[in-house]
Specification:
The protein is an alpha/beta fold. The protein has 19 helices and 20 strands.
Length: 632
């Protein structure tokens, strides 16, 4: 795929003329803003840490970046560097403790791997197939181009061929022999002649209790540059212990300086990159997106008189035995307000040792969702009571969202999810194969508003604010976007390891950028925030600061595309997904959502001596320092 940034260069002169203009048809023009930004677009990919994409990125002269290359973990060739040991991984010695642990000091000790476990083809498609496979790559005999265009209407025609390529040719859950650089015990380059960038690669574990354990946190390990004391050195071990095919997949990175992730490189060179932006919760998809929409965590609310989830759906991360560290019950709910519950004390007691004394922020008696569960309200508004009562879906929630806050001020907004229209048709009974595939790839757990009773249980609100990704592209073509637009690709193109490819996400991203650049008047007052939900279990060399029981977690990419964020700058201020909520609130003059949501935290105070650790922890930014509003 060749990046199509001709419009960026061609539109510079026109942009200079129109930059002060406003999009005349946009509803947002009726509302004053703190900045020239009248339209916010939030595009969310899946499961990539900062180092996984930007590990070898070299910024423009005068800019610095914290990554694998700058730390000497890898060399410019992509090979292991003089400080490769900074990425060294360990395995816990037996016998394992009887209780859940998040630091190796509580165990019989740890031993470094001589060689990491082999990379694995976990969930990677073996070959191209028909629609029945449910994901790419698709065989052209069974899925012709005309059908592909229907299945993925958000793609430019020239990029549809990406759905034909990238299968492994190997059995699933076997050694990924395509990865030839995974030798020894350090981070390794995923790509090579044997595994081109346009390839599906293996998945790995990323769940709350597992990620805390992978982080290996103890305050006795703390340093000024790593005040959490988290060593992040148990990544493969926890995956192997779970027996999920993770192998050493967590330690892989793409080489952006050698042609991998070309769209991201172009955007970082042209606009602004943050190298200190974090997933807000230890764990997977659902909890991160909820934080993007609420700056908070979601909990079980009374449903049909049931006050808490069934016991069988509650997590118990204690080891199964002294020789098996796999969890006793790897489930999705936990009552983190009660330190006597399995797994809670290890995290809460650790938080109490940190100098900034972060509160767990777990309200009394609440069972919080910590791993992926679908909302109990289906895309068509029907409530799936049977699944809720088993604890396998989330009851309709009263948790206040940024959508509610925008509604209160009559500020336009929408969530655009790929495949949503098909998911509605499936919920209404459609059995058309294309609907089943497209609807099945709509990510209901990615939509924070789909959990909210104020939105999903109100037909008018649902119709006005929950839309398909193709609606976003149609409105973008018309130059008539709402003030705030959350855009979520379907699972075919979201960049998730194994079920998608990073270049598929780049293709959709590139399409959005091209369409924005084709309309200088709209682009003049628009910002596109490009990020990922979480790291997906990939290792990252950055540090993070725990804010509460739920996280923060590893760094993830954030690229800011705006006329006011030009120059290839790299900003180091500390942020997470609550920062997106804070930007929207500050720009439109909104208050924090609730008394406990993370948008109440102050902006970080950063020092030149230690540019990645706030001096006023706990703090998260509002992203205003990613822009230069004084001139364009």
């Amino acid at each position: 795929m060749t990046p199509k940034f001709r419009l960026i260069q061609a539109g510079v002169a026109l942009l200079a003329f129109t930059l002060g203009a406003t999009a005349s048809r946009a509803e947002s023009d009726e509302h004053s803003t703190a900045t020239p930004i009248k339209h916010v677009i939030v595009l969310i990919g899946e499961n990539r840490t900062f180092d996984n994409i930007f590990g070898t990125y070299q910024p423009k002269e005068g800019q610095s970046v914290s990554n694998l290359l700058s730390k000497g973990i890898v060399m410019s060739s992509g090979a292991a560097g003089p400080n490769a040991a900074l990425s060294q991984q360990y395995q816990i010695n037996q016998p394992f403790p009887s209780k859940y642990f998040i630091d190796a000091l509580m165990t019989a000790g740890k031993t470094p791997y001589t060689n990491l476990p082999a990379p694995n083809t976990a969930y990677v498609p073996t070959a191209a197939a028909g629609l029945i496979q449910g994901q790419g790559p698709f065989d052209p005999t069974d899925v012709p181009d005309s059908l592909l265009a229907i299945l993925e209407p958000s793609f430019e025609t020239e990029d549809l061929g990406l759905f034909r390529t990238g299968a492994s040719g190997l059995p699933q859950f076997s050694t990924d022999t395509r990865i030839i650089n995974a030798t020894g015990n350090s981070s390794f380059r995923i790509t090579s002649a044997a595994l081109p960038y346009d390839s599906y690669t293996g998945d790995m574990v990323h769940r709350l209790f597992h990620m805390w354990q992978q982080s290996d946190c103890d305050v006795s390990n703390a340093t000024p540059s790593n005040p959490s004391g988290c060593l992040n050195d148990l990544y493969p071990f926890v995956g192997v212990a779970r027996n999920d095919g993770s192998g050493s997949n967590a330690m892989g990175f793409y080489d952006i300086q050698k042609g991998d992730a070309p769209v991201f490189k172009h955007l970082a060179d042209e606009f602004t990159l943050n190298d200190n932006y974090h997933q807000p919760v230890m764990g997977g998809t659902a909890v991160q997106h909820i934080m993007l929409g609420t700056a908070d965590a979601i909990y079980w609310e009374s449903f049909q008189g049931i006050m808490q989830p069934p016991a069988a759906s509650v997590a118990d991360p204690d080891p199964k035995s002294t020789t098996n560290v796999a969890f006793t019950a790897d489930k999705a709910w936990t009552n983190c307000s009660d330190a006597s519950q399995p797994g809670i004390a290890a995290i809460v007691n650790y938080l109490a040792t940190l100098p900034w004394n972060p509160a767990p922020n777990c309200d009394s008696g609440h069972f919080y969702m910590i791993n992926n569960l679908s909302p109990g309200t289906l895309p068509n508004g029907t409530i799936d009571a049977a699944s809720i009562l088993t604890g396998s879906k989330v009851p309709p929630s009263s948790l206040r969202t940024i959508g509610d806050a925008l509604n209160d001020k009559n500020i336009s907004w929408a969530y655009y999810g790929g495949g949503f229209d098909a998911a509605v048709r499936v919920a209404n009974g459609s059995t058309v194969p294309v609907d089943l595939v497209a609807g099945g790839n709509y990510c209901d757990i990615c939509n924070p508003f789909s959990y909210a009773s104020s939105i999903m249980d109100d037909a008018t609100q649902r119709s006005k604010h929950i839309k398909d990704a193709i609606d976003f592209f149609n409105q973008l073509d018309q130059g008539d976007l709402p003030s705030v637009a959350y855009v979520k690709p379907d699972s075919l193109v979201d960049g998730h390891p194994a079920s998608s490819k990073l270049d598929l996400f780049e293709a959709m991203l590139e399409n959005i950028v091209d369409k924005l650049k084709a309309q200088p008047e709209l682009f003049s007052d628009t910002v596109l925030f490009v990020t990922f939900d979480e790291g997906g279990g990939y290792w990252d060399s950055g540090t993070f600061t725990p804010l509460d029981f739920f996280g923060d977690g590893p760094r993830i990419p954030l690229v800011v595309v705006s006329p006011y964020a030009r120059g290839g700058k790299v900003v180091h201020s500390y942020n997470d997904h609550a920062s997106v909520v804070k930007f929207i609130e500050r720009n439109w003059g909104l208050k924090p959502l609730t008394s406990r949501s993370r948008d109440n935290l102050p902006n970080p105070m950063m020092s030149a001596a230690n540019p990645y650790v706030p001096t006023n922890i706990p703090a998260v930014g509002d992203l205003f320092d990613m822009f230069d509003f004084s001139h364009h």
